[in-house]
Amino acid sequence: MKTTTRLATGLLATMLMTGLITGPALAGQGAHPSGSNSASTQKPSAHRVTGSVVAVDQKARTFTLRDGKGKTYTMKAGTRTAAQLPVLREGERVKVTYEATDGEMVATSISAA
Predict the structure, then answer these.
(1) Which of 31, 34, 85, 113 could form a disulfide with 93 if both were Cys (CB 3.0 to 4.6 A apart)?
(2) Does domain 45-112 have CATH number 2.40.50.500?
């Protein structure tokens, strides 16, 4: 009986520590519908777009890109791409990798297309 209790306690502790069981769900309060307790804990997903630079705002650390279908994207320069803003020119074709984080598109890589 002691072995079974120890195994059950260890399994429960492991599930709590790895996030398989969350505090609110364990207490019967219900979990967030998306399976996450907050939007800020979600991992950003990487996306790519190729297009022409429409505008650069160095003060705001943003730039606007228009893809081949005419869709525009306004992106914030990330920490690794901020140094590239002064050399971006309107009309230049670039390939951008970005992450959608907290409702913003943050450029993680900018290269010539």
Answers:
(1) 113
(2) yes
